[in-house]
Amino acid sequence: xxxxxxxxxxxxxxxxxxxxxxxxxxxxxxxxxxxxxxxxxxxxxxxxxxxxxxxxxxxxxxxxxxxxxxxxxxxxxxxxxxxxxxxxxxxxxxxxxxxxxxxxxxxxxxxxx
Length: 113
What we know:
There is one protein chain. The protein is mainly alpha-helical. The chain folds into two domains: 2-58; 72-112. The protein has helices spanning 2-9, 26-58, 72-82, 89-95, 101-112; strands at 15-16, 21-22. The chain has a two-stranded antiparallel ribbon with strand order 1-2. The protein is elongated. The two termini are 42 Å apart.
């Protein structure tokens, strides 16, 4: 919507070739705005359902999201390794078996703390 409004301010019009949307006509603008309103409604409904699901899961004490990549033992080992300024977070991630970006970011955060 913001992009379309920005284009309209510059006196440019939007024409979607795969659908019958052409903002050069009043009917095309109406269709575009109706689609945008439906998309916004759908986004808000998804957000409501997500919040309701998280609240329902939280009630018995569960948490949403991914399980932590590293536990307290790995964090302690990482801190000990990162005390040596010659060892990088990437090297720590490789040593502790998590060479992907998520582990590297975790160890960079540990190094910063």
